[in-house]
Structure of Phosphoribosylformylglycinamidine synthase subunit PurQ:
Amino acid sequence: MAFRAAVITFPGSNCDRDMAVAIERVSGTAPIRVWHGDAHLPEDLDFIALPGGFSYGDYLRSGAMAANSPIMQSVKRRAERGVPVLGVCNGFQVLTEAGLLPGALMRNASQNFICRTVALKVENDRSLFTSGYAAGQTIDIPVAHHDGNYFADDETLDMLEGEGRVAFRYVENCNGSQRDIAGVLNAEGNVLGMMPHPERAVEQAHGGTDGLALFENAIKTLVSA
């Protein structure tokens, strides 16, 4: 059976094509493009991606309006059934606002938009998304955000640490995120939210391929399951 992925597009998404290209590059199959106003996702999906951008112009809070889009109820149901969901940048913000991941993404500590390649330390190498890396490995992934400062209360942070749900940390904290957190997993390990853009690091011509292993491992694992 062919690999079936979906990329959700909200008004203001601007990385949906990048995400679709990365998925197709690894899987050989173009993902289904789903509009935020659709009420239902296609059946038999293997993978769902929420891309970066500025959904609804980042009004209210980044990701807050997108989290209440009709399609997100379907995304939540699929995630609860174990379908892998990847949220990058604005997608990470949407996942926190929708309650699929804990915490919140606030304005960068510098109050400036940050757009550059940063070094990440791989903290968890046991998830579907991260097992293509080694724990402690440093990878270079681009960031591009104004609201990437990860915040959660101490109890939540301790829980994430204790359960091994911190996926990536910034080697040098670029936005003020608590405990240098750049990406987190849900308790079941099938939902990952991260601010850096792995889909922008799958072509050497774009500056590096350190994001490729995330897609390769997830997709190959799902295809062989």
Summary: Residues 202 and 209 are 4 Å apart (CA to CA). The helical segments are 16-27, 70-80, 90-97, 154-162, 212-224. Residues 212-224 form the longest helix (13 residues).
